[in-house]
Design brief:
Layout (H helix, E strand, L loop, with lengths): L21 H24 L11 H30 L6 H19 L4 H25 L3 H25 L6 H33 L9 H20 L4 H21 L8 H26 L3 H27 L12 H21 L4 H28 L7
Helix pairs in contact: 1-2, 1-10, 1-12, 2-4, 2-6, 2-10, 3-4, 4-5, 5-6, 6-7, 6-9, 7-8, 8-9, 9-10, 9-11, 10-11, 10-12, 11-12
Length: 397
């Protein structure tokens, strides 16, 4: 099943922001990716002493990237894709606005250093609302496999956020680390799941290929078991032979997919190579993670290959494609600005990963440059797509 060609309601005049889930959540995700990174840049270099009490600044940054930015992308994607899978209208208008308000309230509560109980309330309200909104259509049409795959991941993501916040308050020992890495692995699991479903289809369609690109249940199972094993090892034995082994196994599964899904000429199609390149960055990050655990060095380079380069490119690619396709525009004719945006983010990822390793004397400059590129890339993406998200679709499609 694919996420393309979603049938929206008959186009209306005026503001269409709450007509379908991708509109408000992709808008907020891209804006928040840029704004929160700018704030992190200021905290990192000045530093500003405003981060929530008892929470290290690095944990705030990581939390907001996982449970703020990435969670908004997940919400927008699922609420759009599930309508296509089930044929049932997902939430829109006031219910969608309320779900968006819960996400936004949680972000503002963090920024304004509200009481932690209020932050937790907003976070749980968002995830509870997303679970109901996403799972009910699948339940109604008895799509048990999709329900178990995506409902479970969203539920674990919510529980991970809960563990993080309770850990922040000292209620759960080591809760911030446990919650953060669990949330990150759930985002990675969602990327792998959706990548397995849609990347080869997008390549076949976009490149006009006659043959189907290869997939394998053995590789799928290897990828799943390796990721689950790596997640568990990260929590209970982060520096161990288990972490190294599962990281290598997970990387190997993705590298096989990259070879199978490569198509000559794909670099002329930004909405294709961005997804393929994002998966390549994740594979690189998993290899670097194994190396880092083995040598005990540069763990953050590995994670930024996975997050900055990998998840960053994949989310931009998916948001671009969904925004074009579900607003009545052709995914075969992406906005011209997307190519420099994707290239910039890829270069920023390489700087963040290899610049800090190869040029340790310029560590601060490499960090600052990669942060600036991220901010500009997502800021440009936001500006380019704002009219698409706000205005009604061009027509039925």
């Amino acid at each position: 099943m694919t996420v393309l060609h979603l049938q929206e309601a008959k186009p209306k005049q005026g503001l269409a922001l709450f007509e379908l889930g991708f509109r408000p959540f992709f808008l907020l995700a891209s804006a928040y990716a840029a704004l929160s990174a700018l704030l992190w840049m200021l905290v990192y270099f000045l530093p500003l002493d405003w981060v929530p009490a008892g929470m290290p600044a690095t944990y705030w940054h990581a939390h907001e990237m996982v449970f703020g930015f990435a969670a908004a992308v997940v919400a927008g994607f699922l609420l759009t894709a599930i309508m296509n899978w089930t044929g049932i209208q997902t939430i829109q208008n006031r219910p969608l606005a309320l779900l968006v308000a819960a996400w936004l309230a949680a972000r503002l509560a963090f920024l304004l250093q509200a009481p932690w109980q209020l932050i937790l309330l907003f976070e749980l309200a968002f995830y509870a609302g997303l679970l109901v909104a996403a799972c009910m259509p699948m339940y109604r049409v008895r799509q048990w496999r999709n329900l178990s795959i995506f409902g479970t991941k969203v539920l674990i993501l919510a529980l991970a956020n809960l563990v993080f916040i309770l850990g922040w308050q000292g209620i759960i020992a080591d809760g911030m680390r446990l919650g953060l890495y669990t949330g990150l692995y759930m985002i990675l699991a969602l990327v792998f799941t959706m990548g397995r479903r849609v990347i080869p289809f997008f390549i076949e369609r976009g490149m006009g290929l006659d043959q189907r690109l290869r997939n394998s249940k053995a590789v799928d199972l290897t990828s799943l078991l390796a990721l689950v094993g790596l997640w568990i090892a990260e929590l209970v034995a982060p520096i161990s032979v288990w972490t190294i082994g599962f990281a290598l196994l997970a990387a190997g599964a993705q590298l096989v997919r990259l070879v199978w899904w490569y198509a000559p000429g794909m670099w002329r199609h930004p909405l294709i190579w961005a997804l393929w390149g994002g998966l390549a960055f994740i594979s690189l990050g998993l290899l670097l993670k194994a190396l880092a655990e083995w040598q005990g060095s540069a763990p953050f380079a590995a994670w930024h290959a996975i997050t900055y380069g990998g998840i960053g490119l994949v989310t931009l690619g998916m948001m671009s494609r969904a925004s074009l396709g579900h607003s009545g525009r052709s995914v075969m004719e992406p906005l011209p600005i997307l190519t420099p945006i994707f290239y910039a983010l890829a270069i920023g990822g390489l700087i963040r990963v290899f610049g800090v390793i190869l040029l340790p004397g310029l560590y601060g400059w490499m960090i600052g440059l990669s942060q600036l590129i991220w901010i500009l890339a997502f800021g440009a993406f936001f500006i380019a797509h704002l009219g698409i998200w706000l205005k009604p679709a061009l027509g039925r499609f």
